[in-house]
Amino acid sequence: MTAKSLPRITVAALAIITGLYPAFYYIRSGNPGLLQQKPAELLASYFYRGSFYTHITFGGIALAIGWMQFSKKIRAWNVNLHRGMGKAYMTAVALSGIAGFTVAMSATGGLVSMAGFGLLAAVWLYTDFRGYRAIRKLDIERHRAWMLRNYSLTFAAVTLRMYLPLATAVLHFDFIPSYRVISWLCWVPNLIVAELLIRRAQKNPEGASDGASAPFQGRYKAS
């Protein structure tokens, strides 16, 4: 392991671990995790529960496989694998994003949380679509840039689960106010970091190609 590879390895490890987290909801009986915060009337809705499980299941898949799409070695080793996983990733994001927008309309914490998670779902779907449209036009550079933005939003599943216990268990903040703030904090900084990486790589394409200026290898172009 080198200093340059450490960010990629850390992101991959966190993505895989968090991507497997939805299994917890299938293994545990009752209403585990965030479902404990939901009113009984909402939990009785098959539409809500279907949307929730669709969101976490396909979101977990997208998170667990998405990081591999930025690997230059995997693309060089088997481009068909890269394309196949890319299709699976984009489909998973689309399904999870649509379901996630539905779930966001009942987010714990009221309008602030609803707006935070609702906008996250909308931007997640938008960047997924832009990445798909770019690759259909064979615009590889813009495709990679849009998918980096998109995966930074997918990674909100990780940052949400980092910030929430930090706020409530370590800093002893009340859950509801913390959740409202984290509904924005879990994804806005991620997107800002992605944009900075894209712009830095645009100015320094040689550094981007050897992985020095981004957590994943590849060149990115802002659009």
Explain the overall architecture:
Helix content is 74%, strand content 0%. The protein is mainly α. It has one domain (6-209). α6 packs antiparallel against α7, α8 (140-154) runs antiparallel to α11 (188-203) and α9 packs antiparallel against α10 (175-185). Mean pLDDT is 90; it is low at 209-223.
List strands and helices in order, with pairings.
Elements lengths: L5 H14 L3 H5 L12 H4 L2 H21 L5 H6 L1 H26 L6 H26 L3 H15 L1 H15 L4 H11 L2 H16 L1 H5 L14
User: Which word captures the global form?
Assistant: globular
For the secondary structure, the number of strands is 0
Order of helices and strands: HHHHHHHHHHHH
> C-alpha Rg, in Å?
18 Å
Return the domain count: 1
Largest sheet: none
Descriptive key words:
12 helices, disordered C terminus, mainly alpha, 223 residues
